[in-house]
Specification:
Helices cover 41% and strands 15% of the residues. The protein is an alpha+beta fold.
């Protein structure tokens, strides 16, 4: 079972007891642990997502039966529902940092020559949906429930989710988290960086944050809420992409003349039959940074949307275990970390077969990972597994073991299906509405404790 052993070694590397305990000590806030420790909660959620199809209750009951969980099932749910959001954020950041060390360098994607000096970081927001209505206050509320909102940063070259900033209100605007997330990414990704985001981040505040450090630049989609003033002294240029699409380049100012935040930018407009793609960037030299390369790079921004889709549909975010925003955000961070782990496994498999990692389906690979993990759990008692992975591996030993396990493990069923003809979507009338769990809980008046009546 090479896939199972490789994932368990990676899991041992990422979730070592010392790392998890250090995270708890630094980010626990006012929470405490007595019987249910944070490393144990991580183990319980891992079992639920990897072996029991997202069932938290089944994971809690199985671990109670084996003696791993000494508390009640209700206590485990309550503990999950109180995990601090800063702890979930740090769990993703430090777990991804450990996976980055084990990531095979040959699996990193390469940029065009004009952009090869940059490290591209993609920003996008994600609302956590489909919250289970387990809390009594949520029962009977029509429509869907939102368990929080997160802004996620993705490293384009490795495809790993680097960090996130989350808020319990699912209706919050993710742009407000940029000032908190940018410094975290800068500590993890060496410069110079090229920040890339969609039109929601096109204003006069975000470019200043993206370029606060020397050498950093930005590439965002233009939004008409910020007016563009062309430079009359700089003539526009036209050209065609490799696919024959026409584009127009202009130089000018983003923001009005009286606004001190206005910025001189280059605007690239890709002409399309339905909706033009308009980009703005502070990479002003059109010869050094061709428009074709920037348009191609922005098309790669869709990778973070595919990541969100796979995290939701493949890695168990559709079935949320907890009912509070804190529990939902922790599971979201957990699913992102699982996604990152499978990207590492996919990189080693691709290297062993002299293939590109993009040729391997994440969904098909994860299906076989789950099957082998379930088989491993059935065959080997927990004590045997704990004894086998008792020693924490060194980084070079971990990489060597992954090469031994995954270079020779291959199945043609992991290849992606050939692209299908796009027939368009069937129009549907959407009547589903969403409500924020955080706002519902905040609007509910808390019950005040009644004074005890004194005996006469």
């Amino acid at each position: 079972m090479p896939l199972a052993e490789a994932v368990l070694w990676l899991w041992r590397w990422v979730t070592c007891e010392e790392r998890l305990q250090s995270l708890w000590d630094r980010f626990r806030g006012r929470c405490y642990q007595k019987v249910l420790s944070f490393p144990l909660m991580v183990h319980l959620i891992a079992d639920a997502l990897l072996q029991y199809e997202g069932s938290g209750r089944q994971s809690f009951e199985k671990n109670r039966q084996s003696g791993q969980l000494e508390a009640s099932v209700q206590a485990a749910y309550r503990k999950l529902g109180r995990l601090p959001i800063p702890l979930s954020q740090a769990f993703l950041v430090e777990g991804t940092a450990a996976l980055t060390e084990a990531f095979p360098p040959w699996a990193e994607r390469e940029l065009p020559d004009s952009l090869r000096s940059f490290h591209v970081v993609i920003f996008d927001g994600k609302a956590i949906k489909r919250v289970a209505k387990r809390l009594k206050l949520l029962r009977g509320i029509p429509g869907g429930l939102l368990g929080g909102k997160a802004l996620v940063a993705l490293n384009w070259s490795t495809g790993l989710a680097l960090a996130m900033r989350a808020y319990p209100d699912g209706e919050a605007n993710e742009v407000r988290f940029v000032p908190e997330l940018v410094p975290v990414v800068r500590r993890r990704v060496a410069g110079p960086r090229l920040w890339m985001a969609d039109r929601a981040f096109c204003d006069l505040e975000q470019p200043a944050r993206f370029t606060a450090q020397a050498g950093d630049h930005f590439l965002v989609r233009y939004h008409p809420k910020v007016k563009f003033y062309p430079d009359p002294e700089k003539p526009e240029r036209t050209g065609n992409t490799a696919k024959g699409q026409c584009y127009i380049e202009q130089w000018g100012w983003l923001g009005g003349p009286s606004d001190q935040r206005r910025r001189y930018v280059r605007r690239i407009r890709l002409l399309r039959p339905q909706d033009d793609v308009i980009l703005v960037t502070d990479l002003l030299d059109a010869d050094a940074y061709p428009a074709q390369d920037l348009l191609w790079l922005y098309s790669e921004r869709w990778g973070i949307e595919r990541m969100f889709q796979q995290v939701t549909e493949v890695f168990g975010l559709q079935g949320l275990i907890g009912g509070t925003p804190q529990a939902c955000i922790f599971q979201f961070a957990f699913c992102l970390l699982l996604y990152n782990m499978i990207q590492v496994v996919r990189g080693y498999l691709a290297a062993g077969q002299y293939r590109q990692p993009e040729e391997i389906s994440t969904e098909k690979l994860f299906d076989d990972v789950q099957r082998q993990l379930i088989a491993w759990d059935v065959i080997f008692p927990p004590q045997v597994t704990l004894h086998y992975f008792q020693r924490e591996p060194r980084l070079e030993a971990l990489r060597a073991r992954l090469r031994v396990l995954l270079y020779s493990a291959w199945s043609d069923t992991w290849l992606k299906s050939p692209p299908q003809t796009h027939h368009g979507k069937t129009p549907r009338k959407r009547t589903r509405t969403h409500h924020s769990v955080y706002r519902i809980l905040q609007d509910h008046p808390r019950r005040k404790s009644q004074p005890t009546a004194r005996a006469p």
